Amino acid sequence: MGLFSKFRDKEPAGAVEWLIVGLGNPGVKYLRTRHNCGWLTVDNLAASLGVSVTRSKFKSVTAFAEIDGHKCLLMKPTTMMNASGEAVVEAMSFYKIPIERVAVISDDVSLDVGKIRIKRKGSDGGQKGLRSIITLTGSEDFPRVKVGIGAKPHPDYDMAAWVLSEFSKSEQPAAFEAFCNAAEAVKMIVGGKIDEAMNKFN
After folding, report:
1. Residues 15-28: what's their mean pLDDT?
2. Structurally, how many domains does the chain consist of?
3. How far apart (Å, rounded) are the C-alpha atoms in residues 195 and 188?
């Protein structure tokens, strides 16, 4: 039994303070695709905290965990990417979480594989999961960690095909390092150290 095993099957004592949302698509065919960087990062984060993201709630698979003394709900929305905001607003409403304490992890085609970028707030940048969250919450004021998936190989390459492709064997080590760094960045954000996270990783 790990330190955080008590959070696996029941809600933690005290109020949930943060939502940690990894964006992606459900289904085996999407599991290792570039578009699922958010899911893959949440899995990495969960493993480091000794929990498993398997509980179905809020149109997501979820897990409770504690990060730096804060009660958190880890979420992987199962709505499909373009409707991610539906899951987020359900959980926000249930736990009365302000938008400033919703940390979102997403893929980003403007960053090279292996790179991450932390932002306090901002536009969706063309990422449809972020767009759904912004549209349904009415706010851009949430922290996010963007994980690089690289630009499409050439201008005529179909963007949907690119984001739904898997990392090449040569890219996988850098991608995994990015998932680890993104998970660490989330911990720093929850711990009130977003400036340090930005200085370290941006």
Report:
1. 93
2. 1
3. 9
